[in-house]
Amino acid sequence: MNGHTATPWQVGRTLHTPQTKEWPAWAWEKNEHQERLGIYRNFRAEDQGTSRIVIAKAIPDALGSQEEAEANAAFIVRAANSHAALVEALRAVEWVGLLMGDHTCEMCPQCWSHKQGGHAPDCQLDKALRAAEGD
To answer: What's the pLDDT band for 15 if we cut at 50, 70, 90?
Structure first.
């Protein structure tokens, strides 16, 4: 997991449960603002959010207004999920199979090094992957 909680992450939201359906509109809105500050993993409506893992909470006092804090939480979620998707896409093209006579060699399309020997020291693809994964 590279030292962080796996994606996908989500911004919280108030779930429609038997309890929340009884709330007045002001209580719903107050809770919704609090939920939108949260960044979660494994947020599922099926279990009424009980299995969710709290990753972080944005704090309006430190970040400015409630709206700014909610926007920051949403941005963090998008960035984390995009980061994971980009790393996955780079890993998918890290080594390509090239037909060399009667056999196939796996090589990096950036530095043209063989997979068995690893990337060249100045390979941009390897540097990008290692930076993205925190190595």
So the answer is: confident
